[in-house]
């Protein structure tokens, strides 16, 4: 904040805004000689021009004073630099005096992060001081020039017996220039002194980093060295008792003083933290009313209603989880208190939203977390610290055995099916028990540093897993509720696919939480930096295969861009189909064509970006592609033909998704138009794959291109003495009685053929039952035969093989 204010105050200087052009005539350029240029003396201002030039010079001085008055910014920078010096000196002394046995990898990592914060705070201060120093130098040069001009003007006006008021005005300007010059010189000295101090901070930080690197290597190497007597040695117990009785009181008093001093200097952040808690309570109270209303509409939200029924608990949990935003460089004691306080709302919240079988386990994990935090207070007491490690590990092993026994009894007494969660907990219990046995063996054998390292890693991983599991449940409920609230509920796709969207978000949320759990598990024992360094080395790994240079980063970037492109394509198609096509009237088949075109365009764009990202020269790629075009054209001409034909089908749209077509002897409905072939589900139920080229080059009958109607013709053969009028009336009556026959267009009876001893008629009707037209024809044939038999009409409805049948 101080650096930001400093940047705003010094902005005129840092922006280097040029001063208004002075109307004082500048001295003419001196004549140059071949040996050395002779600087010209300042020229005096003519007497008749003194008043006007004095006003201009006064304005120029005000601008210089406004740029040079950096006393406020100097005070701010001085206070910030003093704070950074204290923090740097404190950490330098801590690293110089540290004992590797008392500093874990976690402590070293925290020191390194604190140094990064100091560097980030010092960088803008150094930048602003550099700008201020440059501006003061320019202002001094300008003041030197003005001083020379007005000194010559005073002398010239005195010699010329100028009016008294003009002479006094000239002297006032000269004195003002001298005063401004003194102020600028003083500010420049202060700025230069601060620059030296800021540079010294950078030197100290470099020294601390070098010591940290050495200490980190020593800490890692000494993990596997015995640093104390074994538990079966009497010296182990004696050291524990003596160290506790001698140093415990002084250690506790010192930690209390450090905590009180930090809270006193950061009181405003504490008040802001409480204010945030109050805002969260108000928001959750308002949300509870809305959630109760939505629960009456959607029963699926009732399961997530519980977390809004305890707004104070949820607000306290969220406020404590956001503590890192309010307290920078806080002492370990404050984080201990925050960790202890956060367990209370966490357990209360978890009991309401988690399965009842997890309640004893939650209490046990919270207890071990508190015990681990309390144990960290005794780091300066090695004997007590090692004893507490053994006690904590023994308790952990006992709790694991009791939990496993309780779960076995629960499922043995009750004939209920074991859930996935219960089986996962059983496997985790056995893994934790094995880990606890290893820690116990290390601690008992005198390898206290290794036991402490493993125990920190185990407790941090378990507690982080519980916290993230509870947060995942809460976020899942929050997402489902947000999908019912504006503005998300205005989207048609959200309203139609709310459950599927929530499930997809929950799946990605679980993946992110799992990755974050790994990060927290590594950060707890201080292994995160080593893991990041290892990943960086792997990222930079490269190898050559002949003349081909392959790097791991290039391959991963290529895969990542292609995957991201595919996901973007899916999202765009979903948005088009649900939000655009559902609101706009388009020709049938056009939405599918647009969606498919967008899909191919995005994939091609992603492929080009992926190739460019890994450094592929597209010019060379184009040349190679051109050289291979002829060979590819001959070798893959059918594939290219089908690809181009597929594009023609998509844009010309002679065939659309859902159309019923006939090609050769195949009749079926179009299911999919791909890049190479089209899939048709035939009337027999088989899926037929037809190359796109046949849809363009061969004859294709589309029964549903313009409408969904189908004409059905039923032939009737009669004797030559038939009563034609009665026959037509009977046939039309049979057609009208069938519900699948449309009355518009009307059914009609046609005289088709006159034979020697027989006449041939045809009943033609229209039906909208496109898939069941054969059944309609069969029903009409049966009904016609029955009607003609009842009326003693000598005729026969026939059903010859149709060329359209498969």
From TrEMBL:
<feature type="transmembrane region" description="Helical">
    <location>
        <begin position="357"/>
        <end position="378"/>
    </location>
</feature>
<dbReference type="InterPro" id="IPR023408">
    <property type="entry name" value="MscS_beta-dom_sf"/>
</dbReference>
<feature type="transmembrane region" description="Helical">
    <location>
        <begin position="267"/>
        <end position="287"/>
    </location>
</feature>
<feature type="transmembrane region" description="Helical">
    <location>
        <begin position="453"/>
        <end position="475"/>
    </location>
</feature>
<dbReference type="InterPro" id="IPR010920">
    <property type="entry name" value="LSM_dom_sf"/>
</dbReference>
<feature type="domain" description="Mechanosensitive ion channel MscS">
    <location>
        <begin position="638"/>
        <end position="704"/>
    </location>
</feature>
<feature type="coiled-coil region">
    <location>
        <begin position="47"/>
        <end position="87"/>
    </location>
</feature>
<keyword id="KW-1133">Transmembrane helix</keyword>
<feature type="transmembrane region" description="Helical">
    <location>
        <begin position="621"/>
        <end position="640"/>
    </location>
</feature>
<dbReference type="InterPro" id="IPR011014">
    <property type="entry name" value="MscS_channel_TM-2"/>
</dbReference>
<keyword id="KW-0175">Coiled coil</keyword>
<feature type="transmembrane region" description="Helical">
    <location>
        <begin position="589"/>
        <end position="615"/>
    </location>
</feature>
<keyword id="KW-1003">Cell membrane</keyword>
<dbReference type="Pfam" id="PF00924">
    <property type="entry name" value="MS_channel_2nd"/>
</dbReference>
<dbReference type="InterPro" id="IPR011066">
    <property type="entry name" value="MscS_channel_C_sf"/>
</dbReference>
<comment type="similarity">
    <text>Belongs to the MscS (TC 1.A.23) family.</text>
</comment>
<feature type="transmembrane region" description="Helical">
    <location>
        <begin position="333"/>
        <end position="350"/>
    </location>
</feature>
<keyword id="KW-0812">Transmembrane</keyword>
<protein>
    <submittedName>
        <fullName>Mechanosensitive ion channel-like protein</fullName>
    </submittedName>
</protein>
<dbReference type="InterPro" id="IPR049278">
    <property type="entry name" value="MS_channel_C"/>
</dbReference>
<keyword id="KW-0472">Membrane</keyword>
<feature type="transmembrane region" description="Helical">
    <location>
        <begin position="308"/>
        <end position="327"/>
    </location>
</feature>
<dbReference type="InterPro" id="IPR006685">
    <property type="entry name" value="MscS_channel_2nd"/>
</dbReference>
<feature type="transmembrane region" description="Helical">
    <location>
        <begin position="384"/>
        <end position="403"/>
    </location>
</feature>
<dbReference type="GO" id="GO:0008381">
    <property type="term" value="F:mechanosensitive monoatomic ion channel activity"/>
</dbReference>
<feature type="transmembrane region" description="Helical">
    <location>
        <begin position="548"/>
        <end position="568"/>
    </location>
</feature>
<dbReference type="InterPro" id="IPR052702">
    <property type="entry name" value="MscS-like_channel"/>
</dbReference>
<feature type="domain" description="Mechanosensitive ion channel MscS C-terminal">
    <location>
        <begin position="718"/>
        <end position="794"/>
    </location>
</feature>
<dbReference type="Pfam" id="PF21082">
    <property type="entry name" value="MS_channel_3rd"/>
</dbReference>
<dbReference type="GO" id="GO:0005886">
    <property type="term" value="C:plasma membrane"/>
</dbReference>
<feature type="transmembrane region" description="Helical">
    <location>
        <begin position="424"/>
        <end position="447"/>
    </location>
</feature>
């Amino acid at each position: 904040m101080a650096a930001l204010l400093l940047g705003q105050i010094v902005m005129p200087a840092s922006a280097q805004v040029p001063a208004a052009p002075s109307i004082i005539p500048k001295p003419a350029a001196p004549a140059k000689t071949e040996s050395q240029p002779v600087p010209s003396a300042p020229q005096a201002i003519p007497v008749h021009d003194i008043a006007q030039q004095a006003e201009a010079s006064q304005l120029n001085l005000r601008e210089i004073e406004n740029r040079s008055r950096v006393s406020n910014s100097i005070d701010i920078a001085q206070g910030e630099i003093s704070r950074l010096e204290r923090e740097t000196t404190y950490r330098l002394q801590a690293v110089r005096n540290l004992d590797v046995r008392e500093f874990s990898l976690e402590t070293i990592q925290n020191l390194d992060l604190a140094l990064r914060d100091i560097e980030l705070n010092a960088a803008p201060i150094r930048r602003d001081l550099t700008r201020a120093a440059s501006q003061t130098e320019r202002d001094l040069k300008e003041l030197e020039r003005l001083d020379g001009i007005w000194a010559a003007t005073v002398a010239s006006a005195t010699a010329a017996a100028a009016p008294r008021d003009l002479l006094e005005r000239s002297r006032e300007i000269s004195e003002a220039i001298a005063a401004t010059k003194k102020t600028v010189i003083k500010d420049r000295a202060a700025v230069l002194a601060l620059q030296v101090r800021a540079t010294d901070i950078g030197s100290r930080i470099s020294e601390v980093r070098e010591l940290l690197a050495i200490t980190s290597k020593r800490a890692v190497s000494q993990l596997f060295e015995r640093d104390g007597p074994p538990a079966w040695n009497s010296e182990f117990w004696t050291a524990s008792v003596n160290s506790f009785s001698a140093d415990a009181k002084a250690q506790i008093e010192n930690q209390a003083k450090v905590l009180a001093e930090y809270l006193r200097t950061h009181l405003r952040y504490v008040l802001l933290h409480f204010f945030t808690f109050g805002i969260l309570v108000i928001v959750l109270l308002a949300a509870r009313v809305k959630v109760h209303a939505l629960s009456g509409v959607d029963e699926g939200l009732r399961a997530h209603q519980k977390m809004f029924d305890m707004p104070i608990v949820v607000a306290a949990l969220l406020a404590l989880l956001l503590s890192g935003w309010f307290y920078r460089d806080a002492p370990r004691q404050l984080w201990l208190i925050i960790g202890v306080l956060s367990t209370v709302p966490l357990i209360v919240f978890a009991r309401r939203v988690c399965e009842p079988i997890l309640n004893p386990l939650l209490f046990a994990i919270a207890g071990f977390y508190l015990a681990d935090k309390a144990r960290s207070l005794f780091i300066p007491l090695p004997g007590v610290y090692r004893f507490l490690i053994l006690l904590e590990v023994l308790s952990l092993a006992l709790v694991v055995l009791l939990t496993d026994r309780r779960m076995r009894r629960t499922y043995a007494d009750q004939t209920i099916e074991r859930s996935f969660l219960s089986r996962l907990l059983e496997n985790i219990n056995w893994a934790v028990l094995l880990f606890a046995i290893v820690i116990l063996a290390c601690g008992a054998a005198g390898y206290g540093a290794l036991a402490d390292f493993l125990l920190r890693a185990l407790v941090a991983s378990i507690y982080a897993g519980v916290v993230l599991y509870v947060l995942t449940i809460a976020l899942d409920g929050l997402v489902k509720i947000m999908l019912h609230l504006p503005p998300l509920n205005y989207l048609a796709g959200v309203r139609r696919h709310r459950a599927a969207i929530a499930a997809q978000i929950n799946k990605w949320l679980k993946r992110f939480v799992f990755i974050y759990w790994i990060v927290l598990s590594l950060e707890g024992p201080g292994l995160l930096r080593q893991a990041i360094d290892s990943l960086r080395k792997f990222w930079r790994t490269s190898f050559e295969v002949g003349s081909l240079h392959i790097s791991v980063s290039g391959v991963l970037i290529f895969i990542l861009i292609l995957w991201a492109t595919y996901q973007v394509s899916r999202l765009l198609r979903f948005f088009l189909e649900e939000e655009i096509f559902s609101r706009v009237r388009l020709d049938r088949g056009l939405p599918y064509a647009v969606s498919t075109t967008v899909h191919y365009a995005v994939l091609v764009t992603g492929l080009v970006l992926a190739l460019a990202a890994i450094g592929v020269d597209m010019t060379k790629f184009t040349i190679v592609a051109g050289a291979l075009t002829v060979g590819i054209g001959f070798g893959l001409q059918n594939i290219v033909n089908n690809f181009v034909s597929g594009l023609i089908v998509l844009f010309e749209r002679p065939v659309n998704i859902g159309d019923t077509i006939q090609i050769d002897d195949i009749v079926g409905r179009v299911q999919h138009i791909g890049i190479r072939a089209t899939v048709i589900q035939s009337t027999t139920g088989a899926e037929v794959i037809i190359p796109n080229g046949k849809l363009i080059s061969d004859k294709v009958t589309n029964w549903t291109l313009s409408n969904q109607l189908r004409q059905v013709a039923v032939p009737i053969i009669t004797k030559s003495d038939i009563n034609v009028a009665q026959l037509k009336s009977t046939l039309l009556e049979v057609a009208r009685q069938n519900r699948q026959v449309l009355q518009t267009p009307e059914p009609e009876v046609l005289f088709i053929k006159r034979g020697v001893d027989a006449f041939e008629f045809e009943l033609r009707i229209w039906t909208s039952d496109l898939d069941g037209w054969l059944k309609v024809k069969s029903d009409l044939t049966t009904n016609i035969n029955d009607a003609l038999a009842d009326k003693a009409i000598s005729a026969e409805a026939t059903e010859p093989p149709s060329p359209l049948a498969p």
